[in-house]
Amino acid sequence: MRRVVAAGAVAVLIVGLTAGLAFAKRKPTPAERAAILAAMVAFINKPNSPAASDNRVVSIRVATPGGRYARVNLTSPSAGPSIALLRLRAGAWRVIAFGSADFACRLAPAAVWRDLFPKGFCISDTSA
Fold first, then answer.
1. Residue 14: φ, ψ to 5°
2. Stated pTM of the model
3. How far is C-alpha 21 from the geometric centre of its chain's CA atoms?
4. Helix or strand or coil: residue 28?
5. Backbone angles phi, psi at 108, to 5 degrees
6. 80-111 as b/e, with b when 16 or more CB fall inside 10 Å?
7. What does the pLDDT look like over 5-15, one tens digit per residue?
8. pLDDT value at position 100?
9. Could you give phi then psi for residue 11, rounded to 5 degrees?
């Protein structure tokens, strides 16, 4: 009986550890970081951008499910903190959401939201 309980405990521990690894955002590679920073600079500097011109990148994290989404935390002396959600598509990173409030959940798969925004940051978009 003890062996069965011990084996069960080990199995639960292994499942728990691997589940944690499945959703563990990571730092970008140097190439990803450079490309994401370039995308953010282009977004901030484009005409009529919602981003303040004095925004600065504070941190970058890439979602481990697929590695095609990234979260960028920014700060601005004039506008305060903000977040950008980027997607890698056709070899280029693009900002798909920017702001300091909730984003529409349809912008990324649920696994990406759980990975990059563990406390939640998306809202259901029922207008579509």
1. -65, -45
2. 0.76
3. 15
4. coil
5. -150, 155
6. eebbbbbbbeeeebebebbeeeebeeeebeee
7. 444 443 333 33
8. 86
9. -65, -45
pLDDT of residue 72: 96
Q: Would you state the pLDDT for residue 5?
A: 47
pLDDT over threshold 90, residue 18: no
Which whole-number Å values give the CA distances from 73 to 21, 58, 99, in the listed order?
A: 22, 5, 10
Of 13-22, 43-52, 84-93, which range is least confident? 13-22
Q: Which domains does the chain have, with CATH numbers?
A: 25-123 (3.10.450)
Residue type, 58: V
* Long-range pairs, 31-37, Cβ under 8 A, ≥24: 32/60, 32/62, 32/70, 32/93, 33/60, 35/92, 35/93, 36/60, 36/70, 36/72, 36/86, 36/93
